[in-house]
Amino acid sequence: PKMAVFASGNGSNFQAIADSIQRGELQAELALVVTDRPAAFVVERAEKLGVPSFAFLPSEYDSKQLYEEMLKEKLQSLGVEWIVLAGYMRLIGPVLLQAFENRIINIHPSVLPAFPGKDAIGQTLAAGAEFAGVTVHYVDAGMDTGKIIAQQSFAVGGRTREAVEKEIHEIEHQLYPATLQQLFNQ
Ligand code: GRF
């Protein structure tokens, strides 16, 4: 299926998805990268891979409804069936939720429902939680509240933040493409 990846930053998860497609493990087509931050590194990654990208500034629209209608038209005109969020730092509104019902997926760096929202890794460590991890879930109107699809966790032990972050990203980069492959083929 055709998918669009939405990202606001580095784009290492986008890269992992693209690499997985290139290896033939994830059978899907990357139709578009969408970003709300034109300077995000994910745009350079997309360029290198030859994936079209589209940057927009939410502040140039009067409402979320208006920019989501614009995105909806763009995605539908490209035949996009799935929206894959990968470090996209905005809530999805009713326009896209309705147009892509049960077709919007997110990855979050905690074992949800624990530690939703920003800096989940920092929250995990500050709480002294025994486990850190990663969740792939459907997107609903809430912040990291949608139905859980896949999770992977590990014991924090005495690890530094740096070590925990590294482990989380390694898990993300294999769990996200693998979970998408399962979803697309069920
Ligand atoms: C990841 O940790 C993801 O779980 C979270 O945002 C981060 C994005 O990283 N939603 P990257 O831009 O894919 O490198």
TrEMBL record:
<dbReference type="InterPro" id="IPR001555">
    <property type="entry name" value="GART_AS"/>
</dbReference>
<dbReference type="GO" id="GO:0004644">
    <property type="term" value="F:phosphoribosylglycinamide formyltransferase activity"/>
</dbReference>
<feature type="binding site">
    <location>
        <begin position="11"/>
        <end position="13"/>
    </location>
    <ligand>
        <name>N(1)-(5-phospho-beta-D-ribosyl)glycinamide</name>
    </ligand>
</feature>
<keyword id="KW-0808">Transferase</keyword>
<dbReference type="InterPro" id="IPR036477">
    <property type="entry name" value="Formyl_transf_N_sf"/>
</dbReference>
<feature type="site" description="Raises pKa of active site His">
    <location>
        <position position="144"/>
    </location>
</feature>
<dbReference type="GO" id="GO:0006189">
    <property type="term" value="P:'de novo' IMP biosynthetic process"/>
</dbReference>
<dbReference type="InterPro" id="IPR002376">
    <property type="entry name" value="Formyl_transf_N"/>
</dbReference>
<comment type="function">
    <text>Catalyzes the transfer of a formyl group from 10-formyltetrahydrofolate to 5-phospho-ribosyl-glycinamide (GAR), producing 5-phospho-ribosyl-N-formylglycinamide (FGAR) and tetrahydrofolate.</text>
</comment>
<comment type="pathway">
    <text>Purine metabolism; IMP biosynthesis via de novo pathway; N(2)-formyl-N(1)-(5-phospho-D-ribosyl)glycinamide from N(1)-(5-phospho-D-ribosyl)glycinamide (10-formyl THF route): step 1/1.</text>
</comment>
<dbReference type="GO" id="GO:0005829">
    <property type="term" value="C:cytosol"/>
</dbReference>
<dbReference type="Pfam" id="PF00551">
    <property type="entry name" value="Formyl_trans_N"/>
</dbReference>
<keyword id="KW-0658">Purine biosynthesis</keyword>
<feature type="binding site">
    <location>
        <position position="106"/>
    </location>
    <ligand>
        <name>(6R)-10-formyltetrahydrofolate</name>
    </ligand>
</feature>
<feature type="domain" description="Formyl transferase N-terminal">
    <location>
        <begin position="2"/>
        <end position="179"/>
    </location>
</feature>
<feature type="active site" description="Proton donor">
    <location>
        <position position="108"/>
    </location>
</feature>
<dbReference type="InterPro" id="IPR004607">
    <property type="entry name" value="GART"/>
</dbReference>
<protein>
    <recommendedName>
        <fullName>Phosphoribosylglycinamide formyltransferase</fullName>
        <ecNumber>2.1.2.2</ecNumber>
    </recommendedName>
</protein>
<feature type="binding site">
    <location>
        <begin position="89"/>
        <end position="92"/>
    </location>
    <ligand>
        <name>(6R)-10-formyltetrahydrofolate</name>
    </ligand>
</feature>
<comment type="similarity">
    <text>Belongs to the GART family.</text>
</comment>
<feature type="binding site">
    <location>
        <position position="64"/>
    </location>
    <ligand>
        <name>(6R)-10-formyltetrahydrofolate</name>
    </ligand>
</feature>
